[in-house]
Write a structure and sequence with these properties.
This protein is mainly α and about 270 residues long. The protein is built from 9 helices and 6 strands, in the order ααααββββββααααα. Belongs to the DHHC palmitoyltransferase family.
């Protein structure tokens, strides 16, 4: 599955991600490093290191966004699913293709939405309109599903976002605490630097908390060998409520295009 998913939420979140990253780079280089460290050997060191993290972040994001998450191939011809809905098998025989598939994979299930057979732990995503192997969730921030084949890239993306957020906060704090005798005395420059730094602190804090929640969820899923969908289904089947951090992830992950209706759809759809 290499085509671009035409999800309005994802098409908003993708450019928003790049704007946030490049704005952080602009503030750190222009208003932190060049303003407070321009005569120090630390200036080129931090500039190169910060942009290296950005490069790794963007590379991981592109891999997570463009990689096939594990989409189940669609059948070349429409399969006959009439035997699933009726007991009159003689009148509605299975097609040779579906019979062969069932004979080879008895534990596979049928998805009547994309009309294909799917292996265990695969789930259908109505946004991607495909069944995904070991689907964890659909993430609008990469405009793609997180599944068997791209989860490692998604985790790398989260790690680099977290590192970049902490690094940006560290540089801003150092620039505020450390004395800067060579800084410009121009009031407008000082005010601009303060405003940009405050915005960067807010951005880094929000994204840092966001990736911390999502990264914790991903690592927990790997440790338990259980996807987010499977955890939500298990809680529902056991009569328990959705764990708080799962609910937080479901809501935050779809910002800024979150609505109550979209959450209800995603909760019901992504756990199919």
């Amino acid at each position: 599955m290499s085509t671009i998913v035409k999800d309005p939420c994802g098409l908003i979140c993708i450019p928003l991600t790049y704007v946030a990253v490049f704005y952080a780079d602009y503030v750190v280089v222009r208003w932190v490093i060049l303003q407070t460290m321009h005569d120090s050997l630390w200036a080129p060191f931090h500039a190169v290191l910060f942009n290296t993290v950005i490069f790794l972040l963007l590379f991981a994001h592109l891999r997570a966004m463009c990689s096939d998450p594990g989409a189940i191939p669609l059948p070349e011809t429409q399969m006959d699913f009439s035997d699933i809905h009726t007991d009159r098998l003689p009148c509605f025989p299975r097609s040779p293709e579906s019979s062969a598939m069932l004979a080879q994979h008895e534990d596979w299930t049928v998805c009547t939405r994309c009309e294909t057979y799917r292996p265990p732990r695969a789930h259908h995503c109505r946004i991607c309109k495909r069944c995904i192997k070991r689907m964890d969730h659909h993430c609008p921030w990469i405009n793609n599903c997180v599944g068997e084949r791209n989860q490692k890239y998604f985790i790398q993306f989260l790690v680099f976002v977290g590192v970049l957020s902490v690094y940006a906060l560290f540089l801003v704090i150092v620039s505020w605490v450390q004395a800067c005798p060579d800084c410009s005395d121009d009031v407008s420059i000082k005010q601009s630097r303060i405003v940009h730094c405050i915005i960067l602190v807010m951005e880094s804090s929000l994204f840092g908390i966001f990736v911390l929640v999502i990264l914790y969820d991903q690592l927990e899923s790997l440790a338990n060998d259980e996807t987010t969908i499977e955890q939500l289904q298990g809680s529902k089947e056991n009569g328990g409520g959705v764990p708080l951090h799962k609910l937080l992830m479901s809501q935050v992950c779809r910002l800024p295009c979150y609505s109550r209706a979209s959450y209800q759809r995603s909760h019901n759809v992504h756990s199919v």
